[in-house]
Amino acid sequence: MSTKPSKQLETFPNPFVKRDYQIHMEIPEFTCVCPKTGQPDFATLTLDYIPDKKCIELKSLKLYIWSYRDEAAFHEAVTNRILEDLVGVLKPRYIRLAARFFVRGGIFTNVIADHQKSGWTPQPLITLHHCDEQSSTRK
Fold first, then answer.
1. Does residue 107 have a known ligand-binding role?
2. Which member of 22, 52, 61, 90 has the lowest number of beta carbons within 10 Å of its beta carbon?
3. According to the lineage, what is the superkingdom (predicted)?
4. Is 61 annotated as a binding residue?
């Protein structure tokens, strides 16, 4: 049985509902199609969220991201659509999606969108560790 792209996002219960904690994901193989030229657009997506009652299941996220491979979309539209879909299934306390598109016509495009749950107040910032971006090659 082969795996196929899907718009179905699955979740599982947050194992630590009482605690604010950050989930950080890097998705370096996002692809969609330019609606003007039909050429592929490539991006690295960085997803950070503070879950409430649900967490995203990784395989479903992978298949969801894969489902955009042949879809025509402007960078701004696709970034916000993905964020809205994630907000819809997760209802997180906070979520941010950053899409860093590769150069096209000499221009790099970065689109950053976020959402904060109504009534949720973030805890004071304490910086202990920074998640460096991962790469398939080490510097």
1. no
2. 22
3. Bacteria
4. no
Q: How many Å apart are CA 46 and CA 113, to the nearest integer?
A: 11
Whether residue 63 lies inside any domain: the answer is yes
Set 20, 34, 52, 55: catalytic member: 34
**∠ CA 110-97-109, rounded to 5°:** 10
The pLDDT tens digits along the chain (139 residues) read 468 999 999 999 999 999 999 999 999 999 999 999 999 999 999 999 999 999 999 999 999 999 999 999 999 999 999 999 999 999 999 999 999 999 988 999 999 999 999 999 988 877 776 767 666 654 5
Contact call for residues 30 and 66 (beta carbons, < 8 A): no
* Three-class secondary structure of residue 66 per DSSP: helix
129 annotated to a ligand binding site: no
Catalytic annotation on 70? no
Rounded CA-CA distance 61/138 in Å is 26
The reply, when asked if residue 56 is annotated as ligand binding, is: yes
CATH for 28:
3.30.1130.10
94-104/23-33 β-pairing: unpaired
32 tagged catalytic: no
